[in-house]
Amino acid sequence: MSYPYQIKSLEAYKEAYKKSVDDPEAFWGAIAENFLWRKKWDKVLNWNFKEPKIEWFAGGKLNITENCIDRHLATMGDKPAIIWEPNNPEERVRTVTYNRLHKRVCQFAQVLINNGVKKGDRVCIYMGMIPELAYAVLGCARIGAIHSVIFGGFSAQSIADRLEDAKAAFIVTCDGAYRGAKDIPLKSVIDDALVGNKTVKRVIVYTRTRTPVAMLKGRDVWWEDEMEHAETQIEKDGVVSFPAVEMDAEDPLFILYTSGSTGKPKGVVHTIGGYMVWTNYTFVNIFQYQPGQVHFCTADIGWITGHSYIVYGPLSAGATSLMFEGIPTYPDAGRFWDITDKHKVDILYTAPTAIRSLMGFGADPLKGKNLSSLKVLGTVGEPINEEAWHWYDENIGRKRSPIVDTWWQTETGGTLISNLAGVTPAIPSWATLPMPGVQPILVDEQGKEVTEKDEHGIIKGNLCIKAPWPGILRTTYGDHERCRTNYFATYENLYFTGDGALKDANGNYRITGRVDDVLNVSGHRIGTAEVENAINMHTGVVESAVVGYPHDIKGQGIYAYVICSQHESEEQTRKDILQTVTRVIGAIAKPDKIQFVSGLPKTRSGKIMRRVLRKIAEGEMQNLGDTSTLLDPGVVDEIKNGRV
Ligand code: PRX
Hints:
Elements: H1 10-22, H2 24-32, E1 43-48, E2 53-58, E3 61-62, H3 64-76, E4 80-85, E5 94-97, H4 98-114, E6 122-126, H5 131-143, E7 146-149, H6 156-166, E8 170-174, E9 177-179, E10 182-184, H7 186-193, E11 202-206, E12 220-222, H8 223-234, E13 235-236, E14 239-240, E15 247-248, E16 252-258, E17 266-271, H9 272-286, E18 294-297, H10 304-316, E19 320-324, H11 335-343, E20 347-350, H12 352-359, E21 376-380, H13 386-396, E22 403-406, E23 440-443, E24 459-465, E25 475-476, H14 480-488, E26 495-503, E27 509-514, E28 518-521, E29 524-527, H15 528-536, E30 541-551, E31 555-564, H16 570-584, E32 593-596, H17 610-618, H18 634-641
Parallel strand pairs: 4-19, 6-7, 6-8, 8-11, 11-12, 18-19, 18-20, 20-21, 21-22, 31-32
Antiparallel strand pairs: 1-2, 3-15, 4-5, 9-10, 13-14, 16-17, 17-25, 23-24, 24-26, 26-27, 28-29, 30-31
Helix pairs in contact: 1-2, 3-4, 3-10, 4-5, 4-8, 6-7, 9-10, 12-13
């Protein structure tokens, strides 16, 4: 495959950027020509941010799986699409060629049809990182069903909420999943999530861990049986085929739930045409992918990074995507480097939290590792501190592999701000330049563009985007108004990211972190309100307030201030609260620190002064700012003295 739209020089970047802003329709229309459309679009772009209404390639007809699979078969059918590295390094690696991927996706599409799934139906996928997860996702896309992948770390309660919100009648899961030394009983979590559920008609269960599971007659079926049956249906005269369903460019492709400032995660909706063009374009340009290279994105497909840069971006580019089932520290902290050498990985894309954690193990895990196949390194998910950046550069990239710092969000579908590997300059801890089509602007609280520079020529403000790019979210599932108020109403005619940023005199951006009540813990997005709701479910808790604080490995840790009605044993209550949070959200949202307090700093109107709590959690006891509006200033001293 060739990529005529791959940018090869700084000059070419500047030219592409200018074109994309001057005439977005001509620019993206030309790029979209490189894909397989059943019918060409009528109009490249329609938009207003007021409603918001955003349409890319309206009237265009396509199926994304024909772009990710079928169109590669003639020339690359025997090339690996997915290389799967199991949790246990002793277990057999699986190499899934494009031909094999085609067969499995067609088969699974037939399985979905056989089980009553129709175009537009929502299918929840709760699986470990195995190739079958990719088959499930692509099988949905092939028949036009909307997939909603739920990360394996979420609890039964979280799944139940998502099933209800998505009104999903179908689930695909596994008996269990391996993660390091643990196996996680996924099917039994699903069973718990389904207690009282009346909408789910079918659960398809793949056998991975051979953990005993209960199968409910009439509802639960085995993946293996279903696939076997489907195989005979779709194979005729030695030819395997399941015709891809023709979809509109603006039909939904998937829903992915993500946390915001409110207590309830929202279902971000991406549509087919724009998302496909955006993930492909950003993948090819940022990583400077060359045919034949092995791309290793360490994310889980339960998050947007896995959707965009394990599945859709790489596969639409005919790339080889390495999928890893396990964790970076199992069986030891050299696992990423072993995988890199074993599969001659060219591109490694991971999160700062993983880099910091591996950095903590020192030089030993790197002994004897070659790493000479690496050509490009990437980071995503949270700001990367300079120390981690340099460690990555020196020890992993050996100072010869450019690092791309890719800034983006679940809502943006793919990367908005990043350097292009070896093409545009990298600056440690800066995401640097916007991708073509992305028009950032820094505004103050009132929405006015910030223009004042500090003594170093730097501008600081809230990061917004002025115009749509093809991968922007279209709505939040079942509640368009929520999409409008969350992203398009804070500032008129702007998409608000929720992040703060700096901009230097050369137009480079540095993301400083969230400016709303969203935490970023080990690259996982968690709303403070969600954690508070979970803590408050513990019967002994009267009220709680949750803030983030700097954490060496996780980036941010979770600090909870809790008022209890009675707590005979603080230790027991603490344990119970942790258990409650694990039950309600999942272990990823467990507070790192819990401080029991008798009151919270509130204004006369009853609003919690989070600024004060944040400062105390950060250990900054002196400059708490103006506390004169507090109802009971005495409570602040008590909290300061009791800091944990
Ligand atoms: O705060 C930013 C941070 O992660 C948030 C988005 O989280 P999520 O939707 O879970 O997607 C993560 C993977 C794309 C952003 O609002 N973030 C993401 N990438 C970076 C980042 N912060 C700084 N630098 C990055 N490269």
